[in-house]
Amino acid sequence: MNINKYPEIKPGKKYIKRIYIAVMLWIVGRAIQAACRVDREIKKEFAELPEHFSFSLGVLPTGPFMIISKDGEGRAKYDGWKKGRNSLPLEMNIKNIEAAFKVFSFQESTSVAFARERFIVNGDLGYALAIVRVLNIVELYLLPKIITKLAVKRYHKWSEFSPVRKYVNRVLIYIRTFTF
Amino acid sequence: MQEISGTSNKVLEVDLSKKSFIVTDVSEKDLKMYMGGKGLGLKMLYDRMPARIDPLGEDNMIAFMMGVVMGTGAPCSGRFDAVTKSPLTGIMVSASCGGPFGMALKTSGWDGLIVKGKSDKPVLLYIDSKGVEFRDAKKIWGMDTHEVQAELDKLGSGSVVIGPAGENLVRYANICSGHRFLGRGGMGAVMGSKNLKAVVAKGKEYKIVPKNQKKFTKTRKRLLTYINANKVSGNQYRNLGTNSHVMLSNNAGILPVRNFTTGSHGEAHKVSAEEVLTKFNATKATCKPCAILCGHKATFEGKERIVPEFETMGLFGPNLEIFDPVIISQWNETCSLMGMDTISAAGTIAWTMEATEKGLFKSDLKFGSPDHIDRTIKDIAMGRGIGKELAMGSKWLSRKYGGEDFAMHVKGLELAAYDPRGAFGQGLAFAVANRGACHLSAAFFALEAYLNMYAPYTTWGKATYTAFAEECFNVANSLHICQFTAFPVFLQPPLIRVLPTITLKISLSAMSPIAIKVMDLSIWSRLWSSITGHRLNMWQMLKIGRRMHVLERYMNTREGISKKDDTLPGRLLKEGRKNDPKGRTVPLEKMLPKYYSVRGYDKNGIPKDRTLKKLGIEKK
Amino acid sequence: MQKKDFYSFFNQSKYLAGARALEHIPVDLKSYDAARPLVLATKDVTLQGLKKTFIRAFYDSDITLGGFYDDIIDTAGIDQIRDLATLFHDRGCDSIIAVGRGAVMNAAKGLNMAVSTGVSDILSLAGENTLKHPLKPFFTVPTAGSCGYDMANIAVIEQRMFKSDYLFPEVVCLDPRMTAVTDIQKTVESAFVALAHAMEASETRHQNPLNDAYSLAAIQFIHENLPVTLKRPGSKHAALALAYASAMAAAAFSNAPSGVVHNLGSALSQLTGLKPGLCMGIILPNALRYKIEKKIPVRDELVLAQAGIDVYSQTPDKVRAAKAVEILGGLTALAGKYIPASLAGLKIPGYILEDAARRAESEDSQGFTYNDYKSILTMSGMGLA
User: Fold this and answer.
1) Taking the model in full, what pTM does it have?
2) In the predicted model, what is the mean pLDDT of residues B215-234?
């Protein structure tokens, strides 16, 4: 048998999807940092997390990732897209880039992706749920309703989430996300 | 002596169950549509035999058919054909033989003999111009083919007999006449299943005279000139026999070695014709009458034996990694005494060796060792020990024990000694041949590997030529004239002779539909029309060839044959030969659709209604 | 009510199914600590462009494919397995992925036995439960027309049957891109193999709740989706559902002794070279009819699975078995273009049918005799009319 007829196949790369997800993760990461300073609900969620808490959200096996940690004042801080060697208290990884793309292009909501086992979570599940709640609120702010509806399990009602708070905070978060 | 002008058109139909016979007159329409020989035999069985019967049952029929040329003294005309349903493949099979029975039956005034039914005890048929006598064959039952014929010689001038292999229903037992055979497809077992040990014809009662003597003499002369001038028929086959293929195949890399694992071997020259014939004092031993004289006999260690034909030499020799012509000639003789097809026997033994090596089957045979082979051949014929299973052929064995990818058969019929991985056209020819892996249905290997008229490793023009060659050889087998006359008939006409080989090669590959139209085969059609007195031109003749082929295919499709069966053994489709660094395999899938469309089959390989209608075949 | 008799049920495969299922393979390979799978396939996988899809699924992962061997032939035997083992060792592979159907799966299982056990002659492992240790991670990606043998615990190599729970694939990946119908004939055949296996696995004698769950669901899936596929072969949804059905039928079949239709269908296909699906499709309704005639009990629940609760509840107890045959007949009639109604259409000589009945009897473990098989064949010869 001619072995060379069946060469080894090294995995290729999906550049465009990677870049798209990297950009989305950057925006979301910065937005969490911003939202934590603007929205009291998110502030509260973060306050309840332990000291020196940090978590990563990303795509297996090589990224991109988004690292958020809790700074000394109990606020969220975006820590870049590169994961160090140390494992973090909470790691939420999407199993592959296609699944990540489905989530970040809003074809599949975060909760559905969880249900379909597209996520691998290392760490305390309670923290993970807190982070999912945070993500949901951030999405409410970042995106128009028509898209957010696809991404979250249940869109908040008026009574829970007044339009005044929504629009004011949205502007503030956008400003903070894209300025340094 | 009485004379028959043209042909007698009388066929004997014998019913062994009722011990009776009738004489049937062949209608002029049938003769014109099917010429005689194989074609007429097929047609008569098609009319008489229901589909899907047990080949070893009472309903199966076997037809021995003489062509119109037999007995006229035309060159290479001493051949007859037999048609039946094969117990090896379960489909129609036809075989051609150059033994004396043909001449004997023909000169007793019969154009053919169809046997059906089953005798309750061993029987011998004695045929003369008056009809058939049923004689008790208890005395000769169990004798080998030579003993029987010696016994029957005093009765008539020619006979067909079976050996112990046929009696014991070896699926590839053959029928012997003189020292020639109706080799393939297990016709011997069909006779054995009918308890018919032998048929003897008295012969020499009639003289056959062509209707148009002048035209006949002229054509005969031309054919003789061609035969003598052609380098294959007039030199290669005449001096060396078919065994000259050994070195040709070895050089072209299509000689099967070690059950088709490689295509050439350094020791192949030891079994080559050149060496065997000079070393063992060969003399000629051929069919009668013959102008090519390809058969030889020689003295092997003090014993006079027939020199094995190439297929036997190749398959019992290099294919088993044995390079001793003496011992091969001995096996050849054992096979002929037992009445067994050497190609299938050797193919089955090669499978057994490889399966033993791989642990699929238990036997004491191994490649390169001549031990036990002679005993195994006898065991197969007698149905003893593992011989009982080996007698079923390689398809049955591989279906039972595994090893299907190296069971070298197509549709159950073992491959002849040409490796199609070095001649793609032959691969197609093997796959689509009606009786299974038949090297004679298109004999493409000669053009690809020996005569260099086709590039062996391309698929260009191969489907068209395969179809054309099948038609030609069907015609040759229906005339019935020796297939080797195809070499002179194809290659000697002036147009082909003056063209440079390269032009021929290009035109055959690139413009095959046109190129084959330029070929002049009118010698064959003239022979037929001068003898019968009916008009027939070359194109009509080729259409008859096509009709026979499609009829046979149609009969096979009634037995369940379709595209799935038009394939080659896994080894030829998957692994390359060891002597071929590129490891090429047969690109069958590329050629099949083209072939089907040339033939007028649908994409599943079944003849279309339109095709049948065009050829005048009535659907049943 | 279910009987309280003893039974056992085992199915170890993890199923990755649905959209983008292929892309999940790398992570699952990781979880088996494998990083260099050898991929086996037949040539048509490459020709249909599925090879490309498959390889793209590994993009952006850290899995290197040790090779994509796409020359598996229909009669793959120990020769090819030996070649594959060389390739496997040369490339330092640690797992096997089989893409396709039939021969590929058998070859892959053979290869797995060869490389995991280190036995030089794998044929010595033929038989039931000869494997003593788990094998290397074995993933399968069935394509359309995979009849479920792939996902079961058996392998057939060189006509020898290997049966062991270690032969279950670790992961079965059913992705709509791979199961899309490319050859409707093969798909229909495979559906009938699955149907035959499911119906026979649900038979009264080895009935148990777990087997029922798999087999009845498989029957339901086929009855719902085969007509859709026949009407619109392009429907990926239906094709995937048929693949699910095959998977479920395989799980049920793995845990039940082989039935009449399976025995007879495989014997016939072995003797004639016809596809097993074709033979089983023709024999199945006739075998059921035969059982009813001979008063061998047939499950009522078949109707429930085939046609749903409405039809089931409207049909009186006593005629439910007959109703099942009727519904099945309807399905075969729908597939008439691909599965002829009677064996007569296949042109099988009588003496071969007798052989097949004899062979089926020798495989039989349920007390059916030669005469039973013969009569089923005779009934099949006449068709449903």
Assistant:
1) 0.88
2) 92
Q: For residue A8, is it within any domain?
A: no
Average pLDDT, chain B: 92
Distance CA B586, CA B566 (A): 13
Nearest by CB to C349, which of B54, B398, B405? B54
Q: Are strands B80-85 and B92-97 parallel, antiparallel or unpaired?
A: antiparallel
Complex ipTM, two decimals?
0.84
Q: Is B360 on the interface with C (CB under 8 A)?
A: yes
Residue contact C87–A1, C-beta within 8 A = yes
- Using alpha carbons, list the distances in angstroms from residue B352 to B276, B314, C127: 28, 17, 23
Chains A, C: CB contacts within 8 A come to: 75
The verdict on a CB contact (< 8 Å) between A2 and B583 is: yes
Is the alpha carbon torsion for B74, B75, B79, B81 positive or negative? negative
Q: Which tens digits make up the pLDDT trace of B129-184?
A: 999 999 999 999 999 999 999 999 888 899 999 999 999 999 999 999 998 999 89
DSSP string, A119-173: EEEES-HHHHHHHHHHHHHHHHHHS-HHHHHHHSSSPPPTTTS-HHHHHHHHHHH
Chains that touch B (3 or more CB pairs under 8 A): A, C
Question: Which of B 551-580 lie inside 8 A of A, CB atoms?
Answer: 575-576
User: Domain tally for chain A?
Assistant: 1
A1 in a domain, yes or no?
no
Interface list for chain A against chain B, based on CB atoms closer than 8 Å = 1-2
pLDDT-based confidence at residue C4 (cuts at 50, 70, 90) = low
- Average pLDDT for A29-45: 83
Q: What is the CATH number of the domain that holds A20?
A: 3.30.1050
pLDDT by residue (tens digit) across C236-261?
Answer: 899 999 999 999 999 888 888 888 89
Strand-pairing partners, residue B409, are B414
**A3 within domain boundaries:** no
Burial of B27: CB neighbours in 10 Å, binned 0-12, 13-18, 19+: exposed
B583 touches chain A (CB under 8 A): yes
Tell me which residue in B359, B398, B565 faces C121 most closely, judged by beta carbons.
B359
Residue A161 has pLDDT above 80, yes or no: no
- B53 contact residues in C (CB cutoff 8 A): 349-350
Segments forming the whole domain that contains residue A99: 13-178
Contact at CB, A2 and B575, closer than 8 angstroms: no
From chain C, pick out residues whose CB is under 8 angstroms from the CB of A10: 64
pLDDT computed for residue A162 by the predictor: 78
In the predicted structure, residue C318 carries a pLDDT above the cut 90: no
CB neighbours of residue B233 within 10 Å: 27
From C44, which residue of chain B is nearest by alpha-carbon distance? Answer: B589
